[in-house]
């Protein structure tokens, strides 16, 4: 009798253990929450990104054609100047002395011309009456012509000396703003081999341009006239607008990467853009306005066995292999229309229905829907898993992972 009691107690204990195991196992049953979005009407825009440098549209480097010591500077950084305004002067002493010396030489040459002209006239008169030989006459004529030629040569030298003397005064060639001043009073500048730059003048700072470097992989989609938006670090919340005006054919190579210089014009009426700023550029290569669109990951969703346990599937679906949905983003269409694609829609009775749609333009985030959906359809983009016990979320290993969806913090595919 005692053994029977022990046997019944063991069986009861075993049954209680099985019951507790079943209860906790059932309490941990996996539940899922679908992420859905409704199609919207909007624009699909394709862009490429690049960086560039802000610079004035027209900048003039002002130099000196003569050597000398800077005598006086009349402008400084950021000075507003007018065309013809005196910017600086060089010490004119040496060049003035050279000019005076040549002027003295010219006066001597003019005196010599008068003497040789008188001698020529006398020899010509004697030659006519046969008093001198032809050789004497020709010698007087030659000396007279040489004296005239010398006058012309020295006059040219004097003109060059006076021109060089005038170069000791540096004038502004344009209206603009002084961007840089590279010399100081008392500094010696030498123009023997190249013209030294004294000042840099920006013509109009209300019109700027961005000098962008665009990678060879993206340059094929870039054309003149395309719209551009960009930001600068000084105003990260402001979007500046511009337009491509030139794509230079000469390539630049840096670290084995080939880039092409692209010039973008932009307005700067508020003078917020400063020369030398770095611009983070987005070139709008394609813009399709006012079309129906859905997130591009919607066409990658396929219901797996976990979804089938929690929701009714109205449309037969093929088995899904893990390697088919490895979390990779679907390739963008690059504006090439597709024949059709499939999406899954969550109905009001919480059942799933597969719909075939015709698609058009896409980028990395959005896909155009030509037909097959309405604005009221709840299109499934992914799901997250939940457990009753812990309430923690897990992600399906069969689907691309994403953040976002139809509510903050939901899982699913990439966005």
Could you provide a short overview of the structure?
It comes from Chryseobacterium salivictor. This protein is an alpha+beta fold.
Biggest sheet, spatial arrangement of strands:
2-11-14-13-12-15
Question: Taking all residues together, what is the mean pLDDT?
Answer: 84
**C-alpha termini separation:** 71 Å
Strand content: 35-45%
Coarse structural class? alpha+beta
Radius of gyration: 44 Å
Shape annotation:
rod-shaped
- From the coordinates shown, what is the CATH architecture of the largest domain? Beta Barrel
Count of distinct structural domains? 4
Low-confidence segments: 319-337, 389-415
Helix/strand order, N-terminal first = HEEEEEEHHEEEEEEEEEHEEEEEE
CATH class of the largest domain: Mainly Beta
Subcellular location: Cell envelope
Domain Multidrug resistance protein MdtA-like barrel-sandwich hybrid: 59-196
Domain Multidrug resistance protein MdtA-like alpha-helical hairpin: 100-168
Protein name: Macrolide export protein MacA
């Amino acid at each position: 009798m005692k053994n029977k009691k022990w046997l019944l107690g063991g069986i009861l204990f075993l049954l209680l253990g099985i019951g507790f195991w079943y209860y906790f196992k059932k309490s941990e049953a996996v539940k899922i929450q679908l992420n859905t979005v409704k199609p919207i009407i909007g624009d699909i825009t394709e862009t490429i990104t690049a960086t560039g440098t802000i610079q004035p549209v027209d900048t003039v480097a002002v130099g000196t054609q003569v050597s000398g010591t800077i005598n006086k500077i009349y402008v400084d950084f950021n000075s507003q100047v007018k065309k013809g305004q005196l910017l600086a002067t060089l010490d004119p002493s040496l060049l003035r002395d050279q000019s005076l010396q040549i002027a003295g030489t010219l006066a001597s040459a003019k005196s010599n011309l008068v003497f040789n002209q008188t001698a020529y006239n006398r020899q010509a008169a004697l030659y006519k009456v046969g008093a001198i030989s032809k050789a004497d006459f020709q010698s007087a004529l030659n000396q007279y012509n040489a004296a005239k030629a010398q006058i012309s040569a020295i006059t040219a030298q004097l003109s060059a000396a006076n021109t060089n003397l005038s170069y000791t005064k540096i004038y502004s060639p344009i209206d603009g703003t002084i961007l840089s001043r590279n010399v100081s009073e008392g500094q010696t500048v030498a123009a023997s081999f190249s013209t030294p730059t004294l000042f840099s003048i920006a013509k109009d700072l209300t019109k700027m341009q961005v000098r962008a470097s665009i990678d060879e992989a993206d340059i094929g989609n870039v054309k003149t006239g395309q719209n551009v938006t960009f930001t600068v670090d000084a105003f990260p919340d402001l979007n500046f607008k511009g337009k491509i005006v030139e794509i230079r054919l000469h390539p630049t190579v840096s670290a084995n990467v080939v880039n092409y210089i692209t010039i973008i014009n932009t307005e700067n009426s508020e003078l917020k853009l400063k020369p030398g700023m770095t611009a983070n550029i987005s070139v709008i290569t394609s813009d399709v306005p006012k079309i129906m669109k859905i997130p591009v990951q919607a066409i990658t969703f396929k219901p797996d066995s976990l979804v089938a346990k929690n929701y009714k599937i109205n449309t037969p679906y093929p088995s899904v292999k893990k390697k088919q949905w490895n979390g990779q983003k679907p390739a963008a269409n690059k504006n090439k229309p597709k024949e059709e694609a499939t999406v899954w829609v969550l109905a009001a009775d919480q059942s799933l229905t597969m719909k075939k749609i015709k698609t058009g333009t896409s980028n990395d985030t959005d896909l155009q829907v030509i037909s097959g959906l309405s604005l009221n359809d709840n299109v499934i983009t992914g799901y997250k898993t939940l457990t009753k016990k812990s309430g923690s979320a897990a992600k399906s290993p069969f689907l691309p992972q994403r953040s976002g969806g139809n509510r903050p913090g939901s899982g699913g595919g990439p966005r």
